[in-house]
Amino acid sequence: MRTLTGLAALIAWGIGAGCASMETPPGGPPDAAAAVLLRVVPDTGAVNVRPRTALFQFDEVIAERQGSGKLADLFLISPSDGAPDVDWDRKEIRVRPRRGWLPNTTYTVTLLPGLTDLRGNVRAEGATVVFSTGSTIATSQVRGIVFDWVAGRVAPDAQVEAVARPDSTVYVGRTDSTGNFVIRNIPGGDYTVRALVDANRNRALDPRELWDSLRVTVGDSARVELLTHPHDTNPPRIDRVVVRDSFTLRVTVDRPLDPAMTVDASVFTLVGEDSTPLAIVAARPAQVYEREEAEREKSRADSIARAAPPRATGEPPVKPPDPLAAPIVAVAPSRPSPIAEIIIVVSRPMRPGASYRLRAALLRGIMGTARASERVFTLPEAPKAPTPAGGAPPPGAPPVPPVPPPLSGR
């Protein structure tokens, strides 16, 4: 009996040792390399295939949980019937559409960058396989760029859909870090293309999320620009008034304004606590006002440079600027961005500690809804001046009047 017990223990030890040998042995240099993709099945370009799954095989074990997300977040199947089914098996990942592969259809299965192995190493590259369950592979494509229109910048990692008309087949893609996307291997025809800034990554449009869509006819290819924004039908109102100085206010609205709306001094009125109006000499979208300020500063700097005395003989020449060091011009939407902030300049200084009421006769949002709006704000109290070392200023000494900021007159 004792012999049998010892034999059982020896067998158990052997099994455990065999299982342990499947893992990377301890010691040695740490593994800092991301997982390498060894093969994908089916092969790219395969036709007349009907696989149970698309297989992605790696050289090491992939983490089943990917940070705060799921493995399914890293895969796109186009055309799509929703989030794909994803099966994890250590070094292999199998993906398939929820309702199976359609007949006579070209499929693009994409692994997005960001896949993590067990040691936390992240793949910077993605991978794509294209195959057909029919006899041909579709070759048309739609490409373009997606913007966060209100912010005036590109929208990376946005979800893009090309919905075929009239059968509503949904082909999908995602923007890269520059806001660009391409949805390849689709049939030519008429499509509705929609971009969604999917903040919670649930692959669905939720309230207040940014989106845009347009219709396009795809021959060999088509290019589009999508300007995402919140589709809120509530009219905008004044949300906040910040005092920049005694002559200048920065006004923020709670919903962006239609960029075609005329924003000038006629839109606003400003009255004090005693209902005395204070004349507004300028009102401009903040981006316009700040651009004008930058142009004035550049003009002043150029004037100073031109007025500088000539360089003395023998001084080394000024080194020309390096063209490679020039700043890269950011990509901007082709249409002016909606207005989120407004700069207002008044004719005389506002009184510290006093309250004022700012009223907008009409504010029109991106969706066309409009209304009047007003906001009461109070200037901060003026700081107490320190007593000079030589004593208090003489009684009756006139205060130094503030100087209003310059205006371009436009």
Please give the largest β-sheet.
Answer: 8 strands, mixed
- SSE succession: HEEEEEEEEEEEEEEEEEEEEEHEEE
Distance between the termini: 103 Å
Helical residue percent?
A: 10-25%
The CATH topology assignment of the largest domain is Immunoglobulin-like
Radius of gyration: 32 Å
User: What is the total number of structural domains?
Assistant: 3
User: How does the overall form come out from the CA principal axes?
Assistant: elongated
Approximately what portion of the residues adopt beta-strand conformation? 35-45%
CATH C-level class of the largest domain is Mainly Beta
CATH architecture of the largest domain: Sandwich
Classify the secondary structure makeup into a structural class.
Answer: mainly beta
Helix tally equals 2
List the helices and strands and how they pair.
Blueprint: H1 2-20, E1 37-41, E2 54-58, E3 65-66, E4 69-70, E5 75-78, E6 85-89, E7 92-96, E8 106-111, E9 127-132, E10 140-148, E11 153-154, E12 159-165, E13 170-174, E14 180-186, E15 189-196, E16 210-218, E17 221-230, E18 238-245, E19 248-257, E20 268-272, E21 280-285, H2 286-307, E22 339-346, E23 355-364, E24 370-378
Parallel strand pairs: 10-17
Antiparallel strand pairs: 1-2, 2-7, 3-4, 5-8, 6-7, 8-9, 10-11, 10-14, 12-13, 12-15, 15-16, 16-17, 18-19, 19-22, 20-23, 21-22, 23-24
